[in-house]
Amino acid sequence: MKRYFMTLSILLLLPVMGWGQLSIDETQTIANSSNQPAPVHPVPSERQIAWNETEFYAFFHYGMNTYTGQEWGDGSESESTFAPTKTPNPEQWLTAAKAAGMKGGIAVVKHHDGFCLWPTATTEHSTAKASGYGKDVNIPQLFSTAAQKLGMKYGFYISPWDRNSSYYGTQEYIEKVFIPQCEELAGYGSDQFEMWFDGANGGSGYYGGKNTTISIGSTYTDRVMYYDVANLRNRIHQLAPNCVMWGVGGEARWIGNEDGYAGTTNWSTDSRNDENNNEQGTEDYWLWNPGEVDAKATSGGWFWHQGESVSTAEQLFTFYMQSVGRNATLILNLPPDKSGELPSATVSRMTELGNLIKNRLGTDLSQSVTASATRSGGSFSAQNLVDGDKDTYWATDDGVTTATLTIDLGQSRTVRYVMLQEYIRLGQRVQGFSIQYSIDGNSWKTASSQEAMTTIGYKRIIPLNGSMSGLASGYTARYIRVNITKSKACPVLHTVAVY
Do 231 and 179 form a contact (C-beta atoms < 8 A)? Predict the structure, then answer.
């Protein structure tokens, strides 16, 4: 009987004990109390976002080919052929690029011929055996120092394909040459923003390092195998955490042409091994793999050639609009000549281009913005679109995938361009939009443009009543209306601007 009453007493006490354990902790906050929109996957890494924000940067093809007049050397060139007539001047290169409005540059420091523009422990085919002002010159060191001095981003092109190395196509090439070279370059600055890996490789041909004609596979799978890409990414990210591995590296894609344009519809999602749809990307693909447009500013090849001319500022502005204005970045090639400097004509043209971009896209006319729908429970006001802060954004409620943004310019003006930016930390969402204009805010007309108004992504620039070429003629208007007509989830934009 005693055992019965003792058991009963314990059972009677259990609820009281349980209530004490389950009492509410009023200091805790509810998850997502600010009602942040859920991301639409995939989303970019922080290094990919920083890469996208670079937008426009220079390519400097300089090396053995500058002195042989070739575009692709075969690896048999004598090191003494690299003979600059002056000490190469990367600071002059980058100063010209900065005048054009570029935020950084990529220096080619090893092309397919395998010649390294720095004294390296991995090969004798380097500036250690060059002649004249090229003897022991260290382009990576000069370039990184100049970029840091000018406050510009920087990185290096290193060809995975090496026609000089007798190890090419073997595991020894990965372990003794390629990855050690990449690690040497990463050592020239942990703040590098991009390392550029050309997809050209293999195939049948003469290899100077082997002194014979051989055949090596050239498919995407071959490249991944020859260069141990997964291990390469991991090792470089340890040394340079913000360095995006371009092309073969798999963190940003070649746009699919070298003619200065991306697709009018351009998704930042795409595969790593399919180069058939690079201009548009692939909607709903599982990998964030944004596009970069590479284009030449000169009439010759990628390397400097005697007698070449520089494209006009208008032609280069078209490249800018067709790349940066279509959710891609633009890397514009400016080849130094045999002196190791950019020709004066190139330098002058970069200043012209910078002034042209600044004059057309430098002054935002927007005064205020209102929205037909705004997300509740947080700071998602339409005014976030014009506050100059890339980390604040406008959004709608879940399930609301269409909306209208009305931009007031304060007075009637001639408007030529509208710029839109999604908050891509939460993914790329918008699938369709349109633009209207009005003088009085009551009567609206649809703006015509040769641009398909589909994707936005990191940045989209629409020329009103005109094409990407030349100055858009524009309209007279006080109000601009952006209609989001289709979106994968609630639209999320951080900036709108009218020029």
Answer: yes
Does the predicted model carry a pTM greater than 0.90? yes
Question: What's residue 18's pLDDT?
Answer: 38
| pLDDT, tens digit (0-9, with 9 covering 90-100), for 160-197 | 999 999 998 888 999 999 999 999 999 999 999 999 99
Say if domain 46-361 classifies as CATH 3.40.630.30.
Answer: no
Using alpha carbons, select from 142, 275, 167 the residue that is nearest to residue 219. 275
- pLDDT higher than threshold 80 for residue 248: yes
Specify whether domain 368-498 bears CATH 3.30.420.40: no
Helix (H) or strand (E) holding 111: none
**pLDDT over 50 at 16, yes or no:** no
Is the pLDDT confidence value at 7 over 50?
Answer: no
d(CA 314, CA 40): 37
Average pLDDT (351-358) is 98
Task: Assign residue 388 a region (left: φ > 0; alpha: ψ between -120 and 50; beta: otherwise).
Answer: left
Q: List strand residue ranges (DSSP E) for 163-302, in order.
A: 194-197, 203-207, 212-216, 244-247, 253-254, 291-296
Residue 427: name the closest of 325, 254, 262, 287 by CA.
287
**pLDDT tens by residue, 212-240:** 887 777 666 666 667 888 899 999 999 99
Residues of the chain with CATH 3.20.20.80: 46-361
Q: How far apart are CA 496 and CA 499, in angstroms?
A: 10
- What Cα–Cα distance (Å) separates residue 27 from each residue in 22, 36, 160, 198? 14, 21, 56, 55
Antiparallel, parallel or unpaired: β 492-498 and 394-395: antiparallel
Per DSSP, the residues of 202-228 read -EEEEETTTTEEEEE--SHHHHHHHHT
CA distances from 43 to 419, 427, 429 (A): 22, 5, 11
Beta carbons within 10 angstroms of residue 86's beta carbon: 11
- CB contact burial 438-461 (16+ within 10 A = b; e otherwise): beeeeebeebebebebbbbbbbbb
The total number of residues written for the chain in this structure:
499
- Rounded distance, CA 71 to CA 322, Å? 26
